[in-house]
Amino acid sequence: MKIVILPGDGIGPEVAAVAARVLGELPLELELAEQLLGGAAIRETGDPLPPETLAACLKADAVLLGAVGDPRIELAEVRPEQGLIRLRQELDVYANLRPAQSDGVDLLVVRELVGGLYYGARGTRRDGTVFDTMEYRPEQVERVARRAFELARQRRGLVTSVDKANILATSQLWRKVVEGVAGGYTDVELEHLLVDTCAMQLVLAPGRFDVIVTENTFGDILSDVAAGATGGLGLAASASLGDGSGPGIFEPVHGSAPDIAGKGIANPAAMLRSAALMLRHALEAPNEAARLEAAVDAALAEKPTPDLGGSASTAELTDAVLAALGNA
What is the span of the domain harbouring residue 229? Predict the structure, then answer.
């Protein structure tokens, strides 16, 4: 199985190296190859998504991403995040799955990933007004809603569709299409929440949720709220999936964290959990995924990193994961 690793920026190369090391200890035949993305790619080629990176990703079975973002060029005309947004669109990974778990909480955010505000028309008018447009076609909403209902059917059978239908026309379309999809899943309960209410409930009562499905921008924000309510971004993984045979993108929810890059204290748990999602969803290795997830949980209990109140270094947590896997 061919895996393209995109280390990216900041702590990305550090946690990507951990993932490569741990994956190399699993009893699987994996071919790992690194490519440039984001700020690292801009510095090397001037392009946040070089053609050779895209070509390699299109031929891969899965893409494993470290992190993207460089504060030195975050407001430049060519920015690191543009590479990631283009890559998601090129691979058409429309369903971003972001699980969040802790004591009494087991929820899954399903975020539409290739439409909405991040991909709509934008520009600057003559008077200096700047605009970004949220746009959705019915089929974009339908396919991510269908993915959410299928996942809820495998879980506890509740879909919470989040929108701002009292204000936005796109949200009114969203709600109408989701209700149409729900008609084919009579075994799954559907509820609607406005995005502000959902954010409050994620803080006050996250255990009430099963599967949350929402559009791109809302999903970006709410998944971080869910991560904060269940342990922090250092633990939060994600899988971005499409249809058919194209590769998915698997990445931690956290950013590039340039303030701790190079200090050896980055928490690689989210990256390793993203690798586990890759094993489960892309490489058809659910047993190895479960082994890795259990090893990460055991290692975090023994060797918590500074972001979790401990003092373990990246290397110490990695060694603990390998020991828990029995491959130290």
Answer: 98-233
Helices 138-153 and 169-182: angle between axes, nearest 10 degrees: 50
pTM of the complete model beyond 0.90:
yes
Last residue of a domain, one of 194, 216, 233: 233
* Torsion over CA: 238, 84, 81, 117 (sign): negative
Which entry of 164, 185, 303, 307 is annotated as an active-site residue? 164
Query: pLDDT digit string (tens) for 171-196?
Result: 999 999 999 999 999 999 999 999 99
220 is catalytic: yes
- Total structural domains in the chain? 2
For the segment 125-172, what is each residue's pLDDT rounded down to a tens digit?
Answer: 999 999 999 999 999 999 999 999 999 999 999 999 999 999 999 999
Q: Which two tokens stand for residue 234?
A: 């250092």
Angstrom distance (rounded) from CA 127 to CA 2: 50
| 103 annotated active-site | no
Tell which of 205, 233, 261 closes a domain: 233
70 is catalytic: no
Quote the crossing angle between the two packed helices 286-302 and 269-281, to the nearest 10°.
170
Distances (CA, A) of 38 to 82, 84, 89: 8, 7, 15
**Residue 206: closest CA among 224, 220, 188, 179:** 224
